[in-house]
Amino acid sequence: MRSVNETLNALQDELRSVEAALAQPDVASDLNRLRDLSRRHKELAEINNAWVRLQAAQEDLDTAKEMFNESTGDGP
Asked: Which letter does DSSP use for residue 73 in this model?
């Protein structure tokens, strides 16, 4: 079973793949493929944006905990 991090990292890889496919000139001439890739890109971009915000929030929380521990004299 994959961890959440592994799954989300795989989705980030898929997002990069979809972006690369969308950049191919032949995709513009295949409207069905363009539509499908565009829809998948939107889905993956939303997930990726939420993941990036969650990681930033976790880093902020870790920093705040460190600052609190330093200010109160509590060590790890």
From this structure: T
